[in-house]
Amino acid sequence: MAGAACDKRHVEMNKPLIKFLGALAVVAAANPAAAVVLDITSAGPSPTFGDTSTVNFTWDAGMAYSPGYSGQDAFYCEPLGITPCVFSIAPAGAATDVILNSFTFGSYAATTSVLWSVMDLATSLVVASGSAALTNNTFATIDINLPSTLGFAVSFGPDSYAAGLNSVTYNNAVPTPGSLALLGAALFGFAATRRRA
pTM to 2 decimals? Predict the structure, then answer.
């Protein structure tokens, strides 16, 4: 019976901490990172194209730029129709992960379909794949919406001349000073409660 009384006392003592941690979880869930759209431009595909303080891109050496994919800028691959085009996106700096939301293809004056696949670099597993049907001046947006701690490698082709990459949408988790302060306060409160027990 003494054990049950002790457990009740610990629950009562920890109620404020439990409420605080619950509020912390609500605040964290209410502030997701905003998605970033990387539109392909004539500035790429340079080695640092698209890089920020929280994400790094790597572009296939065979990628080239053209303004003519469904009327927009795009990257396509040379040599034509022989090997797939590949790019990767990975977290950088203080980012703890990267979320690949989507990517968009356009067509080059033709009706075509392009095979694509997404590999999670943390597990080396293909997590999504398919085929996108395109006609001139139409786009195909591929929704992925998956997180990874090491990033993703995206492959498209091998007919990656008739289809070009128009954009990539992503976001990632970066611990903010406010969330770190809340976590510190929670840990301090937990330690003070444990010390009283």
Answer: 0.72
